[in-house]
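--- STAGE predict ---
source: upstream dedup step, 1 unique chain passed
mode: sequence only
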Amino acid sequence: MVKLLMLITSLAGGGAERVVSELSLNLSSNISRRIITLTNRISYPSNIPPLSMNFNYGGTADINMIYTAFMGIINYREILKNYKPDVSISFLVLDNFINVLSNIVNNKAKVIVSVHTVLSMRFRKSPIDRFSKFLIKILYNKADLIIAVSRGIRDELVRDFNINPKKIRVVYNPIDIEKIQYLARDEVNDEWFDGELPIIINMGRLTEAKGQWHLIRAFSKVRKRKQCKLVICGNGELKLYLENLVRNLDLKNDVKFLGWQDNPFKYISEASIFVSSSLWDALPCALIEAMTCDCPVIATDCKYGSSEILGDGKFGILTPPLDGRFYNASDPLTLEEEYLANTIIKLLDNQELRNNYSKKARMRVVNFDQKIILKLYEDIIYDVST
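--- STAGE serialize ---
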């Protein structure tokens, strides 16, 4: 029996959080596992209730992060001493720092850190960001193994953070294809999804990285050419800005914010097109999940995961990266937004093309099936523990 601890900031919505949930629920019975969280925010299920350190960490204030890191190391060392795990795996940057530093002295657990974000974009603004990049270069190399969720992330770790390539394994996020396809068949009790007009859908946190304001602006052109609707699933700090943009573009009757949904897949399966407008994304799970729902996809060719998922455009349409600048309703569309709008119009106008991409999507998503990915995780955990 291998004893495993999984350390993550929370189990609230997010790609890394979903991975932790899937590992907790579905790893082999030969792996005894427990989730440890820094905060008590929970949206995803787990095999047993997580053990929370009960920090009030929001991931923004530098002082808050420093305090959480310092106290997290003290608390996690005590947890390691009590649980005596064979392997300790962490999933987000602060979790990784705590994991490595807690295990440097006296603890015998093998340390795995994983990278679920584009680090070069995550840390680029403040002095604490620059210090964090320095710590990544030092501390990640002290881990026994590093899991990168895409080849793009692996290459960035080696190129920009001087990480030993021999320590890195690329493992995609697991997708429960059967569960998603089952949930996608649920009935949608929402008059917006009455089938009268085509629906464009986007799913993701309302944050800078997801770039939804670019999609809204592009949609303003699409709406002038075609009767259709835009639906956005997710919550986040940019909601007010996005709502104001919708109102100022006179799209209030054409755009709907669904917020967080326990089952977003039933909505995606009713949509005509899924559009990912990300500015950067290590491996956009929402894109894979949309493909699992047989929804044809359009994605910006951002850093890094979209082109990898779509096979450089074989399994879905890639559009040029967006510039990430915040625009008002009165600002003219950028060339990239124009291109995105024209691509959406083209796909809406061509049912045969949409069907073709739906079929290709089914072929591609099997590479992310959780049965395959969980086996990779199990092999890694067994290998590292011996």
